[in-house]
Backbone:
């Protein structure tokens, strides 16, 4: 891709697929091997920027950076790290909307590798299965900890919940600020981005409005 197209794709925050684009050998290396390799490459970046890596304050940065990428910011790339999402029989027959709101979003934009921070609000109408509430938060956290675009993050959460809960009746709203919009480029400090993805009964305007009114508070 030429440099102009690279800029256009990044500035318009276009994603190309619902699946995170991963290489087939993505997890051939262990975490330790990845940290060692990234540590080396980030040291090269710092040196290219002209930084003196013999300074005590900078010497450990390549290792800290590499460990943070593999173990924290991007732990959600690795399928082994996916939370176990146990579901239970809907014994009490609850069949109205259940909403988990103000779930923290700590993610990173895949075009600039800068933070995306905000809140997710998720609703579903149980059929035969219900899920432990904290599991929804854990699933959001897992998918957020990848290089992301907000639209894909919303869809990945939606599709997983629909699959686990065996119902299309799920809705996902995310409000988030993108540091790549607030701190570079247009440098707009106040704007934020909202995405809404849903299926099943939430295609009905009234059902969707009921959810959105509750989320608005
Ligand atoms: Zn970005």
Residues:
């Amino acid at each position: 891709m030429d440099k102009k197209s690279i800029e256009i794709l990044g500035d318009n925050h276009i994603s190309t697929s619902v699946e995170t684009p991963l290489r087939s050998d993505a997890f051939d290396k262990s975490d330790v091997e990845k940290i060692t390799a990234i540590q080396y490459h980030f040291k090269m970046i710092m040196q290219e920027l002209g930084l003196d890596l013999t300074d005590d304050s900078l010497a450990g940065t390549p290792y800290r950076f590499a460990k943070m990428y593999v173990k924290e910011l991007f732990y959600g790339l690795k399928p082994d790290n996916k939370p176990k999402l146990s579901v239970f029989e809907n014994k009490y027959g609850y069949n109205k909307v259940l909403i988990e709101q103000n779930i923290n979003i700590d993610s990173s934009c895949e075009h600039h590798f800068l933070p995306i921070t905000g809140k997710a609000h998720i609703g579903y109408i149980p059929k035969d299965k219900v899920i432990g509430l904290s599991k929804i938060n854990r699933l959001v956290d897992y998918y957020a900890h990848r290089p992301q675009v907000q639209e894909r993050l919303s869809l990945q959460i939606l599709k997983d919940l629909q699959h686990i809960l065996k119902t299309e009746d799920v809705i996902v709203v995310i409000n988030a600020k993108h540091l790549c919009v607030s701190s570079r480029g247009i440098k707009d400090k106040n704007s934020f981005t909202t995405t809404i993805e849903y299926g099943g009964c939430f295609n009905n305007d009234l059902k969707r409005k009921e959810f959105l009114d509750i989320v608005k508070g």
About this structure: The CA atoms of residues 28 and 117 lie 30 Å apart. Residues 10, 109, 111-112, 114, 178, 180 surround zinc ion (CB under 6 Å). The chain has a mean pLDDT of 94. The longest helix spans residues 31-48.
